[in-house]
């Protein structure tokens, strides 16, 4: 996996993934930025929730669950002093489908957290990571 980052100005950077996708990162105005894009640590958090959600959906579909939607709300805390690593991350999964079994959803989340999601397993070295979920019946 490769990436490239170019400094644009002040605290703005254009990052390009090895697959050719780009994202602009920027800082808050009080830090010299213009608030044109997410902060780097926000991208770490978004990448992590993307990684675990990918796993959960994949596991549910492989289990033949009739999953129709998944939204994950994430809440986190970071250390107050440098390095300001994540110290707590909570994932709240809202899974929508037809007759979804709670034990199946719980299993998918657990497998992602403990075996498949590289990002959350890596962040788990500094952060207390927790999960919960709710199931909504699709119409």
Automatic annotation (TrEMBL):
Residues spanning the membrane: none
InterPro entries in alphabetical order: KH_dom-like_a/b (IPR015946), OsmC/Ohr_fam (IPR003718), OsmC/Ohrsf (IPR036102)
Domain of life: Bacteria
One Pfam family per UniProt: OsmC
Coiled coil ranges: none
Name under which the protein is recorded: Putative redox protein
């Amino acid at each position: 996996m490769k990436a490239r980052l170019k400094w644009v100005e002040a605290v703005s950077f254009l990052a390009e993934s090895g697959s050719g996708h780009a994202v602009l990162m920027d800082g808050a105005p009080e830090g010299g930025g213009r608030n044109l894009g997410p902060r780097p640590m926000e991208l770490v958090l978004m990448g992590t929730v993307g990684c675990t959600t990918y796993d959960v959906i994949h596991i549910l579909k492989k289990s033949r669950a009739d999953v129709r939607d998944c939204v994950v709300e994430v809440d986190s805390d970071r250390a107050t002093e440098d390095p300001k690593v994540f110290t707590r991350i909570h994932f709240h999964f809202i899974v929508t489908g037809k007759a979804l079994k709670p034990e199946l959803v719980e299993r998918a989340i657990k497998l992602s957290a403990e075996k498949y999601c590289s990002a959350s397993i890596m962040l788990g070295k500094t952060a207390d990571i927790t999960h919960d979920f709710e199931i909504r019946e699709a119409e």
